[in-house]
Every structure is written in structure tokens, then in C-alpha cells.
Amino acid sequence: MDLDGGNKRVYQRLGGPSGDSKHQKVCYHWQAGKCNRHPCPFLHSELPTPNVNGTSSKRPHGSADNSGFSGHRRNPHFNNTWGRGGGRGGGRGAGGGVVGGDMSVVRKADKVCNYWIQGNCNFGERCKFLHSWNTGDGFSMLTQLEGHQKVVSGIAFPSGSDKLYTGSTDESVRVWDCQSGKCVAVINLGGEVGCMISEGPWVFVGIPNFVKVWNTQNSMELSLNGPVGQVYALVVNNDMLFAGTQDGSILVWKFNVVANCFEPAASLKGHTRGVVSLVVGANRLYSGSMDNTIRVWNLENLECLQTLTDHTSVVMSVLCWEQFLLSCSLDKTVKVWYATESGNLEVTYTHNEEHGIVTLCGMHDAHGKPILLCSCNDNTVRLYDLPSFAERGKIFTKQEVRAIQAGPNGLFFTGDGTGQVKVWNWTPEPIPTIQ
Q1: What pTM was estimated for this model as a whole?
Q2: How far apart are CA 431 and CA 435, in angstroms?
Q3: Using one digit for the tens of pLDDT, what is the confidence trace for 122-136?
């Protein structure tokens, strides 16, 4: 083990005189006071005074380098754009922090400090565990909503409403006032909430053997029967409502404008186990199932066009982004699908995680960049830039997150297994400057 060599490298990184300084660069994130990488390949100190030639060895902000902070360049061949981006400074692990004035580095474990959670950690910045529910830049937690007693299984934010709706396996839906953060109503349903979505002013809630429907503008309530067992997934396309059920079927209702009600229209058969995820894109319905497959349905005639069998465990979530389909599974992978010339979907990229993936959610950050949120069953949510899959940050929770929902004005929400709902906000990252 090269102890001397290791110490020398650390000494050089902290600004020691040895080494060729013209190849050294100051860490932008260190200058902004938020570098969390350990070891960091860049200097955590100002560079020495101008060299013997009289020119400064500092580079101006924005100059080209190989640090991976430059924008991802899209290859004209889509197959080469996935997973090729460099890491971002805010998202590479839990990182470390500078303590006191002696520049000693504390390596932060990838775990939230239990004493900090209880409000009585005495180590402060010297604590080796995180004093935060997240790592990474560009987003922060605004508040926590307490009330549900079990898993939060659905979150909805109806258009034009100032209320947030959350559903749980504690058999209730809670309504939260967005101004005060207070729970203003509790709706007891008599069955575990399996999923929840909103479309315009409508809120749809899946429970065993029923879909409950509310119109938040006129207080209209409906109860749609037909499902066998729990309703795990819901999606709306135009005037049709689709529900993925425990027995493997997908039930379809069509909205009758004249009668102002939803009428049964079809039942799609093919999956052999429960349908747990639905998404609509490019005039197709995609369904993920406990039978480890994804089925592609034509929305015009409701016929199955293709069955995708690349996953080896439950397909927990499917998501459309641009011309791609993304899917995640308990087999610890996120797969990216792209249509070939024949029209069939094939995997163009596979992203591997260390743990099973529970759900996906796509949204844009404060700068309009597409972000993929992956909830894993190790009680974390990983954030990635698309299409590079460069890690953007991480959210920590007491139990795994089952529901993620994007909201207006840069807000997004997560609901975990303890019943806790967290409200997050995308914030523009400050641009570090060199003094």
C-alpha cells in the first residue's frame, strides 16, 4: 500500500507546493463552499501566485477542461447519447466537508445521522453522517407533511386547485392547503389506496374493486366498479380512463359528456399477473406488470402490438420521455427503449442500480433540464440528468418512496413508507466565480 504516495497526492490536492501547478485547477464547487467529493481531483485552495513567466495559472470560469462539468453533447446517433455524461459535482456520493481552519476533511457516510434527526447531534460539522435529507445541488426540501399512518401510495395536484391530495394504504386520502401546509380534510375510503392521479380538475383513486372519482371544481363524486382486486395503476388519455388491476386486466372507461359520467368501454387481457404501472405516449398505452413484462397497446383499436420481456423481475414503473420509453424493475435496472424501423421497441441502454427500483418520475429542473428520479428499495431516491444518467443528487428517507409527483412552480413531492410527505423545490444553482 502506497501510504506516502497517497499522502503526497492529498497534500498536492490541498495546494502543496510539489507537482506541476500549471495542470492544477481550483474546484468550482469548493469555491462556492459546497464541494462534497472525496477525494476531489481539483484544488481546495487558491492557486499559487503567478508563475515564473508572469502569467496566472488560474483558468477563467467557463474555459474548456475535462472535468465533466461541460454540457453533454448529443451524438447524432441516439444509441450513443445514453449514459455517456460526466458526473456532476453535487451528486457523486455523500462527499466530505471542510472542518475548522485546518482543512482536515471529514468523509461523510452515505447515511443520515440518527442523532441529527432527533435534534441532538453534538458533533456538528465533524459528524461523519449526513445532517441533511439530501445531497446534491439545485433542489432543497421546503417542508414535511405529517398525518398518514402507513405507506403514501399516491400524490395528485389537480389543475387550478390550491390543494394537494395524498393517498395511503391507511385507507384515507388527505387534502392539504398549499398556502398553510395544513391538512384540511381526511377522506376515509374503507380500502387501501393503490394509486392516485389527477387530470384537469379530476382526481382518480384506485382502491380494491373500485375507482373513486372526484371533480374538484363542482364536488361531483363517482364510484366506478368492475376491477377485480386492488387497482394499482391509472392513466387518462383524451376521454378514456385506464385502470391496471390485481388480476392482470386493464379496464377502460369512456367519459360520456352528455350524461356526465364514465361508462365501461373495454377490458384488455394479456398480462398474467397484476398491472402495476401505466403510461400513454405516441398513441400507445404501455403497461408494466408483476409478470415481468411490458405490453404495448394500440389506443385506436386497443389491441396488443408487442410484449417486451427483457426485465427479469416485476416491472414497477414505465415512463415516456421524448421518443423513448423508460422502464424500471426490481431486477435493479432502468431500461431505455427505442422504436426500430419496424416499429418494434428494443433496449438501447440499460442503467444498473445496486438495489431494486420502485418507481420513476421525470421532470425538469429550474433551468429546464430533464431529470429522472429513481426511487430504490434502499430508502433512497437517485436523481439523474437525461440522457447522460450523470448523477445529480440523492434523497434519503426513513422508508422507501412509493410516490413521486411533479408540481407547479418548480415543486415536487415524495411520499414514503412511514406516511411522510416531503415537499421539494428546484432552485437555480449559483454560478461560482473566481476571486
Answers
A1: 0.75
A2: 13
A3: 777 778 777 777 888
